[in-house]
Amino acid sequence: MATEAFKISDLSKFYGPTLALDKLSVSAPKRAVGLLGPNGAGKTTLIRILMGIIRHSSGSGSVLGYDFCESIQDIRDHVGYSPEFTPMIPDVSAMKYVTFMGKLSGLGAVEAAQRAHDTLHYVGLAEERYRPLREFSTGMMQKCKLAAALVHDPDLVILDEPTDGLDPTGRQQMLELIERLYKDEGKSLIVSSHLLFDVERVCDWVMVLGRGQLVTSGEMSNLLADTSGMLRLKISGDPVSFSRKLTAKGLEVEIDGPFLDVKRTNGTEMTILEEVNRDPTVSLRYLGSRTRTLEDVFISMVEGRELG
């Protein structure tokens, strides 16, 4: 059994003279993988190649151990795909649409119908399953696409912009569904999104593309680890006044909203605690290593690469 969701080597894709993927070599574990990159980075092109929707120009690769040149039907049998675009069959009900997708995935008619019923209930569309798709809101359609991706009980689920166009409530519901798929159902996920907060919430592995090449790939926790050697603290009281006291003690201090970031040297923590104890107007709410957000990582890596 393959230990990787997918693995590619020297993968290239041209659209006429335009190079979309440039000898891309990378592998992704069977986990919740966030696929990131600016517009035109090659994310959707990569997904479509993995699913056999388009042909690559050169290179090789596999999905769940199946070669995507020779075993595309095996891949589709074991992978669920929710595309960015919305399939429009306006007069067909959600039940008929998801049942049809189940049949395309190799299920018999009875099993496909039962699985459609179950997956529509799972995503929260049980009461709307017989309504025509033309009456669906954007949020309902995103859930319907997810049900279609799950109908054949795949091992790997690929979600392309799953929260695109959703209001805050719908976005929250979709993220909860995605988390359940990974943590409770044991599905491997690939989530492509331009919303970095969504990826940071539901994924534990990140892959960043830029100009059709790999920018970085690895554990979310490792990417977000701050290497600047800064301590972050939050106090109740006046942060500006307290920062001056720390500066007077020879510490380098930066103010970041309600936080103070202090350059760590020998004895920094002790100095901070001593100053907190000396000032009756101040109490310490947080003291620890500064962390980064996925947005910080994305901007530093991708925008730096684009400018370079």
Brief account:
By secondary structure, the chain is an alpha/beta fold. It folds into two domains: 4-224, 3-Layer(aba) Sandwich (Rossmann fold); 230-289, Alpha-Beta Plaits (2-Layer Sandwich), CATH 3.30.70. It has helices at residues 43-50, 72-78, 94-104, 109-122, 138-150, 168-183, 196-202, 220-224, 239-248, 268-278, 294-307, and strands at residues 4-15, 18-29, 32-36, 58-63, 66-67, 79-82, 156-160, 188-192, 205-210, 213-219, 230-236, 253-256, 259-263, 283-289.
Note down, in words, how this protein is organized.
With 308 residues, the chain is an alpha/beta fold. The protein has two domains: 4-224, Rossmann fold, CATH 3.40.50.300; 230-289, Alpha-Beta Plaits (2-Layer Sandwich), CATH 3.30.70. Helix content is 38%, strand content 28%. It is built from eleven helices and 14 strands. It has helices spanning 43-50, 72-78, 94-104, 109-122, 138-150, 168-183, 196-202, 220-224, 239-248, 268-278, 294-307, and strands at 4-15, 18-29, 32-36, 58-63, 66-67, 79-82, 156-160, 188-192, 205-210, 213-219, 230-236, 253-256, 259-263, 283-289. The strands form three sheets. The protein has a six-stranded mixed beta sheet with strand order 6-7-8-3-9-10, sandwiched between helices. The protein has a four-stranded antiparallel beta sheet with strand order 2-1-4-5, covered by helices on one side. Strands 12-13-11-14 form a four-stranded antiparallel beta sheet, with helices on one face. The radius of gyration is 24 Å and the shape is elongated. The two termini are 41 Å apart. The mean pLDDT is 92.
